[in-house]
Specification:
The complex is a heterodimer. Chain A is an alpha/beta fold. Chain A has one domain (10-409). Chain A contains 19 helices and eight strands. A four-stranded parallel β-sheet of chain A has the order 2-1-3-4, with helices on both faces. In chain A, β3 (117-121), α8 (127-139) and β4 (143-146) form a beta-alpha-beta unit. The two termini of chain A are 32 Å apart. By secondary structure, chain B is of the alpha/beta class. Chain B has two domains: 1-92 and 239-256, Nucleotidyltransferase, domain 5; 94-237, Nucleotidyltransferase, domain 5 (2-Layer Sandwich), CATH 3.30.420.40. In chain B, 40% of the residues lie in helices and 21% in strands. Chain B is built from eight helices and ten strands. In chain B, β6 (97-101) and β7 (106-111) form a beta hairpin. Classes of the chains: A alpha/beta, B alpha/beta. The A-B interface holds A 363, 370, 376, 381, 391, 393-394, 397-398, 400-401, 404-405, 408-409 and B 66, 78-82, 105, 116-120, 122, 124-125, 204.
Chain lengths: 410, 256
């Protein structure tokens, strides 16, 4: 028993506590912004946050909050509140739980602080446009929509000009709402910090190329929060630097994420936020480690387009050509690269009813992976934050059958 | 002498199979009821007494089905996907694809020449296309479920059932009855509906010949005929269709 506890302790991530503290302070600061005179903006997860950081506006992410709601298993109840107003149960559970939360100030932290402005970038989906329009009406506050055209392949000149112009409109909007001039010098600094933060995040994710892997994708889902919410700050860089050191240390000491890594798997789509522990333990019981995923890598996927010495210009392309805003053929290329990079034995796809852009095309991606790489794939269905949609017994059977299949093969 | 047993605890029925030195000695079906473990013990005990064996002579037991983890006396629990694939291949080594339709889910599997499952697809979110759908319809039509097969083959014009939901389809069937449509035609329409669901699932993973159907619903010749038409290939159905999972479990037990 004592050995077991020691084992568990050895495998624990030391950085987890630091992360929790940072996020707690971040939310406290956001919720007490009224006292400090700072402005609060709600922004979509793929939205251009750097100009907000440059203007000293606190960015709050209803989607990050949605993940917290899911993890606290409060999603179903809050979604119901939105459905009582007439919102369809087929709508994204981030949107439904956020709308529900606004009504009752629910969720694990007593609700989000009332925003001074809303920044909506539709690179991740079209639902956010309606969701943010709803909230703009509800809170009676200004809304900025950053419209990133879909890029099946490449980046057309028209799209380039269109998106770049919106960045100027964005900074004008911020000047209007904040009542102060946009600081371009500060913006350059924030741009550099953002790129460095993304690089560090990429390096952290790369450590799971090691066999055995020092972390699972479930760890990555947790450590993702900072690069999403506070990209462009020094705090983010300091944290990921330390996290990277910890991961490298684990690799050097041979500390693996799961006790006996026999099978390596790739995860696709957002997490099932209310079942992270269950999924983690379920796969670990099969000696399977989910070493990488397509979701967390999206926050360093635009590095190839961003120029830290010319951030304001290059961020237009960086924000437009994200994983969810490109054609399925392009997504397939990225997935196939990841299969090789992390050397995985199987592919676990979350068919997430809440996210149409992520889930449409999954069967095509599945077929391509099976055809090109010859590895089996599994599909698990749910709404990422609405626990009412999850069938444990059925999902368990699918996971068990998938792992039995992989075991027979290897 | 190697004696192994398999128990398949399904949503409606519990099945058991005993294999002695590589040959099926006997099989049994009973109702699952409320307690999966008790159902497993009961159906296996009944089978053992029928074939004249003592439970102490069983070398190993594998459990499968939704209730597989409740069967404490099993040496291992293996999913019914692997067990159905294994069972079908054991009974016909040339089989390359299996469709299993049980009480509450339907699944399609492709196996390699050694009988190992290479891919599978499951419909476990929706009762349409499963035994439950047929049960509901049998009640609505006041026809014995066992007569569905023969009756549907007498149909001259299958009804069209457009609802994809079991519950709404039941209402549709009731209104067809009140419009005076023949039972035979309604049942044929029901079978077409079930076959549509199953064939979509099967086509998704690419089933090919030789194709075998297992599970309780395979006993319904009407569904099999409708499915053969939709997939444009013959489907083998053995007497042991319903107990195929238990047989596969017993085969897996010998390999432990």
């Amino acid at each position: 028993m004592a050995d077991e506890a020691k084992e568990k302790d050895k495998r624990k991530m030391k950085s987890a506590k630091t992360m929790r503290d940072i996020m707690t302070n971040y939310y406290i600061e956001a919720k007490t912004a009224g006292e400090t005179g700072k402005k609060v903006a709600w922004i979509t997860s793929g939205g251009p946050v750097e100009p907000l950081i440059a203007m000293d506006v606190i960015p709050v992410y209803p989607e990050n909050h949605g993940a917290m709601i899911g993890a606290s298993k409060m999603g179903g109840e809050l979604c119901e509140k939105a459905e009582e107003l007439g919102y369809s149960g087929d709508i994204c559970s981030y949107a439904r739980s956020d709308i529900g939360c606004s009504l009752v100030d629910g969720g694990p932290i007593g609700g989000l602080p009332k925003p001074d402005m809303l920044i909506c970038c539709n690179n991740i989906c079209g639902t956010v446009m309606k969701w943010y329009e709803v909230q703009a009406r509800y809170y009676d506050i200004p809304l900025f929509i950053f419209d990133t055209p879909f890029c099946h392949t490449g980046y057309a000149d028209e799209a380039k000009k269109y998106v770049r112009k919106q960045i100027d409109e964005y900074t004008d909007f911020l000047e209007g709402v904040c009542g102060s001039k946009f600081d371009h010098d500060r913006m350059e600094e924030v741009g550099r910090l953002s790129v460095e933060g993304q690089r560090l995040w990429q390096e952290v994710l790369d450590t799971s190329m090691n066999k055995p892997s020092p972390m699972t994708c479930f760890d990555a889902f947790f450590f993702l929060a900072l690069i999403v919410t506070l990209r462009g700050t020094q705090e983010t860089i300091d944290f990921y630097r330390d996290l990277l050191e910890e991961m490298k240390g684990r690799v050097a000491e041979g500390i693996s994420a799961i006790p006996n890594e026999r099978y390596r798997l790739l995860w696709d789509n957002l997490p099932i936020w209310y079942r992270i522990k269950w999924l983690s333990q379920k796969f670990a019981s099969h000696d399977a480690c989910l070493v990488a995923d397509t979701y967390t890598s999206a926050w360093c996927g635009s590095l190839k387009y961003m120029d830290e010495n010319n951030f304001l210009d290059s961020m237009a392309e960086g924000y437009t050509r994200i994983y969810l805003n490109i054609g399925v053929d392009e997504m397939i290329k990225i997935v196939l690269e990841m299969v090789d990079k992390y050397d995985v034995d199987g592919f676990v796809m979350h068919s997430n009813r809440s996210c149409k852009p992520y889930s449409l095309g999954q069967y095509d991606i599945q077929k391509a992976v099976q055809r090109e790489k010859g590895i089996p794939s599994l599909i698990i269905e749910s709404h990422m934050v609405d626990e009412r949609s999850f069938s444990e017994s059925q999902t368990e059977t699918r996971i068990d059958a998938f792992m039995e299949m992989i075991r027979q093969k290897k | 002498m190697m004696i192994t047993a398999g128990v398949d605890i399904g949503s409606i029925t519990a099945k058991a199979a005993v294999i002695v030195d590589g040959k099926v000695k006997g099989t049994k079906v009973d109702f699952t009821g409320y307690n999966a473990e008790q159902a497993g013990k009961r159906v296996l005990d009944e089978l053992l007494s029928e074939v004249g064996l003592d439970d102490r002579s069983i070398d190993r037991v594998v459990s499968t089905g939704y209730g597989r983890n409740s069967v404490q006396f099993a040496d291992k629990a293996i999913t019914e996907i692997i067990c159905h694939g294994t069972g079908a291949h054991f009974l016909n080594p040339r089989v390359r694809a299996i469709i299993d339709v049980g009480g509450q889910d339907s699944k399609a599997m492709v196996v390699d020449p050694e009988g190992r499952v290479r891919d599978f697809a499951m419909n476990d979110k929706c009762a349409a296309g499963t035994g439950r759908f047929l049960e509901v319809m049998a009640r609505a039509l006041e026809v014995d479920l066992g007569d569905f097969g023969t009756k549907s083959l007498k149909s001259d014009k299958p009804s069209k059932i457009s609802s994809i939901c079991t519950v709404f389809a039941e209402s549709e069937v009731i209104s067809l009855i009140s419009k005076g449509e023949k039972r035979e035609n309604i049942i044929a329409g029901i079978h077409d509906s079930v076959a549509s669901r199953i064939s979509a699932l099967a086509k998704r993973i690419g089933v090919g010949e030789p194709l075998m159907m297992t599970g309780g619903v395979a006993k319904n010749r009407g569904v099999v005929a409708a499915l053969e038409k939709k997939l444009a290939m013959p489907i083998e159905v053995l007497e042991s269709a319903q107990v195929n999972g238990a047989i596969g479990a017993a085969v897996m037990a010998a390999r432990l």
